[in-house]
Amino acid sequence: MRRPSIFLREGIPTAIRPDGTLDRTHAPDISTERKRELYVAMLRTRVIDGRLERLQRQGRIGFHIGSLGEEASILGSAMAMGAQDWIFPCYREFGALLSRGFPLQSYVDNMFANANDIVKGRQMPDHYTSRAHRFGSVSSPIGTQISQAVGFAWAAKLKRDPITVAVYFGDGATSSHDFHTGLNFAGVYGAPVLFLCRNNQWAISLPSNEQTASQNFAEKASSYGVAAKRCDGNDVLATYHTITEALGYIQREKKPMMIEMLTYRMGGHSTSDDPRAYRVDDEVDRWAKTDPLVRMRRHLEHLGGWNETDESEAKQAVEQELSQCIERAEAAPPPELDTMFDDVYQTRPPHLQQQASQLIHGPRAVDPHLR
Amino acid sequence: MVPAPWILTCVKTMPKKNLVTALNEGLRSELAENPDVVVLGEDVGRVGGVFRVTAGLQEEFGSDRVIDTPLAEGGIIGAAIGMAMYGLRPIAEIQFSDFIFPAFDQIVSEAAKYRYRSGGEFPIPMVIRAPVGGGIRGGHYHSQSPEALFIHTPGLKVVCPSNPYDAKGLLKSAVKDNDTVMFFEPKRVYRAVKMEVPDGPYEIPLSQAKVVRPGEDVTVIAWGAMLFEALAAAESAQQQGVSTEVLDLRTLWPVDVESIMQSVRKTGRVVVVHEAPKTCGFGAELLTLVSEHAFLHLQAPPKRVTGWDTPFPYRLEQEYLPLQHRILPALLETAAY
Ligand SMILES: Cc1ncc(C[n+]2csc(CCOP(=O)(O)OP(=O)(O)O)c2C)c(N)n1
Ligand SMILES: [Mg+2]
Predict the structure, then answer these.
(1) Reported pTM
(2) Atom 13 of ligand 1, residue of closest alpha carbon
(3) Residue of A95, B167, B257, B280 with fewest CB within 10 Å of its CB?
């Protein structure tokens, strides 16, 4: 039943060889220090994922949607972008946001949906945003960000601003109408968009080969006149390299491009999902062998740029910072009742003024435990 | 959630089931009885739905009849329309009603108008199931109650059961019906309420409301998960000497006007409760109907207790929902007017 071509890495260039040496034709020319930064960003993401999952199990946060196994595709792409470039996220890219300097505290506040949360506790956890970090707004409905990113990039082009807009989406999102209209518009108007398909091979319980009859997701782009490539999304250097070249192409040619990053969702879809109900362990085990962190670490060790002490110190640093953030976020109060009525419109119309007053003077404002 | 008193009126020997199980049984019996019935949607097959409503059905009936679709609601509903035109009986699932909007065009422009625009040549008999409502920490996009949008669309029937027993019987009627039926399932109730549900198939006719608690002083109209809040508020009101009649609409459209008016003519006072935002919510239509049909019976201004006119919030969802602490004062004020 499973058509293998869509899953296999065959034919997709890899930069880091199994022994940790590098195939330079597919690797970026970056310093060991930069490589360490890439690795530490991935490690940080993984540590945070593990901790948030535990917090959810303990009932301390309501939800988490993680990136276990997909760190290289997320960080390898985000960290190859320029500071002027924008990111329109899907929902697994908190690592990308943090890599832009978004404070960990703010991210954890979002997970607790407290009064300090940048989106004011209005959205589920992992629905963050930050204009200051040139990072769009996470939305649950699948695919919607794709055509929006196209419009954003098109506007930048009209204003002659030399920026690229990267938009993340999953393999499942390639079935959404926004994927198709987005690619079509970008093709027609030459919008400087980098379409980033995180093919993690699953859309909740649906495997990629039942999502499409195409041989892969990249080939869809060609029907819209949009150039596309596949890359090894579990190889952070190959990803970084592919993205760097794509960004060059987009600005040089004034055309969009799509990259299919082949990776694997090692965990459940989210904390609400148990993948044991629909997939076999040996598939997971097989992909665990291509773990992006293990591969990059091997390369750094080969360079003499990483050792066991570095590893444990880096992990500990994240754990410590995280503990402090969690403590503060958990202690912070929920958003004020009145804030529920802000931002519906620029100014609050009379009917919302009235409703806010009803809530604020309602029975629960006096006794929050009242059923 | 409080146990509803009418649960006790069910036959004693029947096994108790929750809403998920009751719907699962209902779907299984439709698939077993009619080879033209197909179930399609995202994650409905292999994993049996994200709420497990379709659990085990693909194993039993095969992947041609219980179909995992690509991630495209417009595709699901467009394809279901085509299947219905050919003669199948599709039961389409939209994973959350919040994700129905990519299919809005197919539902509103197409399914709802097909019979009419083709001069009756092409009826679209299908059921569109979707979980609705908040209270499960779902934020903007896993909590909404969009029933009014579909009630406002001529050509669609809209059902929203509050409990396992009604849900199974209403599902059967919905599948049998020759129009497109929107079947909204209150997700907060999925596993929260257990009641006696017969193993075999049975029907509960569409467009029949049910008095689930008789009363004299004030009528409260509710559906879905808010029915339980209305019942709890009615119980509290009783302790303060106000007798409340609680009406579960069960089918929202076409609505059972007669049952509503019977109750309102008796009590002269009415409160509508719904989770959806107040403005242009179904409450507005219900209270207009009351003014048209029973104006001279009214002894107090009708009231609405609803979600606020904001997007559905995450952290403050318990403050957003029209829970019993907001329903009770409305009942008491209306009764005392
Ligand atoms: C329009 C819409 N339909 C359904 C859903 C429910 N849903 C959430 S995530 C998801 C699967 C997405 O898969 P993919 O695009 O591959 O992204 P991944 O989660 O694998 O990163 C589905 C069906 C949704 N959020 N939006
Ligand atoms: Mg996916």
Answers:
(1) 0.96
(2) A203
(3) B280
